[in-house]
């Protein structure tokens, strides 16, 4: 069971002898950082960077799919992003509908399944409506899963999972002996998705910023200096090449 949990792509612990990973990542998680700096460098307001960053998403998702990637998770709005100036928050929370208004028909046509991970109830109604519509419309698609982390925080997600499991223990539906990696994962907001194989963060920052703290335990990390609006298919190729050259050991030798 542990093997299933940790390796849902072609890589398994049985390939320990292999020199490198060599397979395409099944799940890529991306921290799309550097929009504000991109805008500042051009003398533009920060929101112009977010708008430009939004334009990169479809291109990169399609390119990931062309590589054979099955899941792409994007950190679009964190639980900490509420601390930003109201104008920027409002703008960021308009982006999902702006993106989906334009891209949803094409995503659907390309068999992409849109998913959302986060506390959506706290979002403005217009944001919720747009993302729900996209999730429902594409729910039967079985191509690339494009998962947006929206009002998402890794610590909160873990606390919520603990609450849900504790409630089941209190009700007698579970005992503490049932609690293991697999059960815990199934109570996270990413339930039913494999753990990311590769995490990419753009803009040169080297930190996790409360992103998928549980799920990234054995992921490979790739930090790119490029700012997110400048991230190209070539940068993704490079990240995947680096991933393939790594040897994953999962604590083994
Ligand atoms: C971090 O850059 C980026 C964000 C907080 C938002 C990322 C969102 C998008 C790219 C668009 C989302 C689109 C959809 C469809 C949901 P930053 O603002 O922290 O950049 P900085 O570090 O240079 O200031």
- What's the CATH topology name of the domain at 26-153 and 196-244? Undecaprenyl pyrophosphate synthetase
What helical percentage do the residues reach?
Answer: 40-55%
Secondary-structure class:
alpha/beta
What's the main sheet like? 6 strands, parallel
Strand fraction: 5-15%
Count of distinct strands = 6
User: At the first level of CATH, what is the class of the domain at 26-153 and 196-244?
Assistant: Alpha Beta
Overall geometric form: globular
Description:
It is built from eight helices and six strands; from the N terminus they run αβααβαβαβααββα. Strand 3 (113-117), helix 5 and strand 4 (145-152) form a beta-alpha-beta unit. Strands 3-4-2-1-5-6 form a six-stranded parallel β-sheet, with helices on both faces. It is α/β, with parallel strands linked by helices. The chain has helices spanning 2-6, 35-41, 46-67, 86-109, 125-137, 154-171, 181-186, 233-245; strands at 27-31, 71-78, 113-117, 145-152, 198-201, 220-223. The relative contact order is 0.20. It has a domain at 26-153 and 196-244: Decaprenyl diphosphate synthase-like (Undecaprenyl pyrophosphate synthetase). The longest helix has 24 residues, at 86-109. Bound molecules: farnesyl diphosphate. Farnesyl diphosphate binds next to helix 2, helix 3 and helix 4. Farnesyl diphosphate (FPP) is lined by residues 32-37, 50, 53-54, 57, 76, 81, 92, 95-96, 99, 148, 203, 228.
Features:
alpha/beta, 253 residues, Undecaprenyl pyrophosphate synthetase, 6-stranded parallel β-sheet, 43% helix
């Amino acid at each position: 069971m542990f093997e299933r949990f940790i390796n849902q792509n072609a890589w398994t612990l049985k390939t320990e002898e292999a020199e490198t990973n060599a397979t395409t990542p099944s799940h890529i998680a991306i921290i799309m950082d550097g929009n504000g700096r991109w805008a500042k460098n051009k003398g533009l307001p920060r929101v112009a960077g977010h708008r430009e960053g939004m334009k990169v998403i479809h291109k990169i998702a399609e390119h990931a799919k062309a590589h054979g990637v099955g899941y792409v998770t994007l950190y679009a709005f964190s639980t900490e992003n509420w601390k930003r100036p109201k104008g920027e928050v409002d703008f960021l929370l308009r982006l999902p509908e702006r993106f989906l208004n334009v891209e949803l028909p094409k995503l659907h046509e390309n068999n992409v399944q849109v998913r959302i991970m986060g506390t959506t109830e706290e979002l403005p109604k217009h944001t919720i409506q747009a993302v729900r519509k996209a999730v429902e419309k594409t729910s039967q698609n079985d191509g690339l899963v494009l998962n947006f982390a929206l009002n998402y925080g890794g610590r909160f997600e873990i606390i919520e999972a603990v609450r849900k499991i504790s409630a089941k223990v209190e009700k007698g539906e579970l005992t503490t002996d049932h609690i293991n990696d697999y059960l815990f994962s199934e109570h996270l907001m990413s339930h039913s998705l494999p753990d990311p194989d590769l995490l990419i963060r753009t803009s040169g920052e080297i930190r996790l910023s409360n992103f998928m703290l549980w799920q990234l335990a054995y992921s490979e990390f790739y930090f790119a200096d490029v700012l997110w609006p400048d991230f190209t298919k070539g940068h993704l190729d490079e990240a995947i090449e680096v991933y393939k050259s790594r040897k994953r050991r999962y604590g083994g030798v």
